[in-house]
Design a protein that fits this description.
The protein has about 240 residues and is α/β, with parallel strands linked by helices. The chain folds into 2 domains: about 45 residues, no CATH class; about 160 residues, no CATH class. α4 packs antiparallel against α5. The radius of gyration is 21 Å and the shape is globular.
Length: about 240
């Protein structure tokens, strides 16, 4: 940012900021704002003409950061269980379904640029194409269906689209150099996150509610998952 803009922002109590890379309409001053709001809020538009070349690929319509540690969703699932991000049993159920449906661990045979099935979902850059809109819709549906750990389902939706969805994963170092990451602070907020057995969903446990999704966890999977053995995970990072 220009030093003049930085000094302007320092004087604001609240900043409403918009940011774009290129191809924008002529900006207009906000209208219909009360006198009190003008004293409280500053409106800022940032046009970044440099960063995009590090984050975008001309032949892709969707870009997202690669996860710092993991490439396979099964690695990420293992880390989530160790860090108690969600009920281990329900994470295993989600992974069992994905593996049963053919979702293999990450390998070099997969052809996503930069190579990973696990993103850092905080920053998404995309064109508003029909396919990128469809991908986001399917990804959200999956988060709504199973656990709210969105990094577990990204690679699965890529897999189900069978190579039709072309996206770019920029390196995590680019992500960290351009954006400030604020880690999760949410504590466990529902009984669902602490269950120890699927039987807890039955009988008295049927009154359980998960406000953040998980609706598919109450619906029996139509296939027998008892024979599913998840692929082994090699823990390559202390961070999980």
């Amino acid at each position: 940012m220009n030093p003049v803009d930085i000094e302007y922002v320092k004087k604001c109590r609240f900043v409403v900021a918009s940011e774009t890379f290129d191809g924008y309409d002529v900006p207009h001053q906000p209208s219909n704002i009360s006198i009190r709001s003008k004293k409280l809020f500053c409106f800022l538009m940032v046009v970044d003409e440099v960063s995009l070349k590090y984050l975008w690929h001309d032949k892709r319509t969707y870009a997202i950061a690669q996860h710092k540690h993991h490439r396979s969703i099964y690695e990420e699932a293992d880390a989530n269980k160790r860090r108690k991000r969600y009920a281990r049993l329900l994470i295993d159920l989600q992974m069992n379904i994905y593996y049963y449906e053919g979702m293999e661990p990450w390998s070099l045979k997969k052809n996503t640029i930069s190579g990973s099935d696990v993103p850092e979902g905080a920053i998404i850059i995309r064109e508003h194409t029909a396919l990128s809109n469809l991908f986001n819709c399917l990804w959200f549906n999956e988060v709504n269906l199973f656990t709210p750990r969105d990094q577990l389902s990204f690679g699965y939706i890529v897999y189900r689209l069978r190579g039709l969805f072309k996206f770019f994963m920029f390196q995590n170092c680019e992500y960290n150099s351009l954006f400030v990451l604020y880690l999760h602070t949410r504590e466990h907020s529902s009984k669902v996150e602490w269950i120890k057995s699927l039987s807890e969903f039955k009988g008295n446990g049927s009154s359980m509610k998960e406000s953040r999704g998980g609706f598919g966890l109450w619906t029996p999977y139509p296939k027998n998952l008892d024979s599913v053995i998840l692929p082994p995970v090699v823990r390559t990072s202390k961070a999980g």
